């Protein structure tokens, strides 16, 4: 693949807003392990190698198990996730595909508070943005170090 510009060095003014959203979400009522599962699942859907490297490393660092990470692509059929995680993963997929049904909305609100659902939606749309940026600029996977971005 042709070398592309480094958006992280050349695009700091543009990326500043996204880093601000990340800082906001770190203080969200949503648990960090749940966010890492969502970030990983959305990155699987979008095929973002850099984000998969980052979020699986962060998830492991936070205590996530290999079994749950490996089973994430088949979460609907795996017994490894609780009701809240299932609701969040279902919501994340629906928002990523831009096909959110009333049933999915009700299922999400049954497990998440209104504030959590708003923050989860922000997290999903933000990781979708990061996925697209990293894919567009072919940012290489493998170099991420846990905690690199705060």
UniProtKB/TrEMBL annotation:
Recorded coiled-coil stretches: none
Pfam families noted in UniProt: CMD (PF02627)
Family matches, as InterPro entries: AhpD-like, AhpD_core, CMD-like
GO MF term set: peroxiredoxin activity
Residue span, Carboxymuconolactone decarboxylase-like domain: 22-94
Protein name: Carboxymuconolactone decarboxylase family protein
Protein species of origin: Mucilaginibacter conchicola
């Amino acid at each position: 693949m042709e070398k592309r510009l480094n958006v992280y060095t050349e695009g700091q003014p543009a990326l500043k807003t996204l880093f601000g959203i990340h800082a906001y979400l770190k203080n969200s009522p949503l648990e960090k392990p749940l966010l890492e599962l969502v970030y990983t699942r959305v990155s699987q859907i979008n095929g973002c190698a850099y984000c998969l490297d980052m979020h699986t490393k962060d998830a492991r660092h936070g205590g996530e198990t290999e079994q749950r990470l490996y089973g994430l692509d088949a979460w609907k059929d795996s017994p490894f996730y609780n009701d809240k995680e299932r609701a969040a993963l279902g919501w994340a997929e629906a928002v990523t595909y831009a096909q959110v049904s009333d049933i999915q909305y009700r299922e999400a609100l049954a497990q998440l508070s209104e504030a959590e659902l708003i923050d989860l939606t922000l997290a999903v749309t933000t990781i979708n943005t990061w996925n697209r940026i990293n894919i567009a600029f072919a940012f290489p996977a493998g170099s991420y170090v846990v905690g690199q971005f705060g």
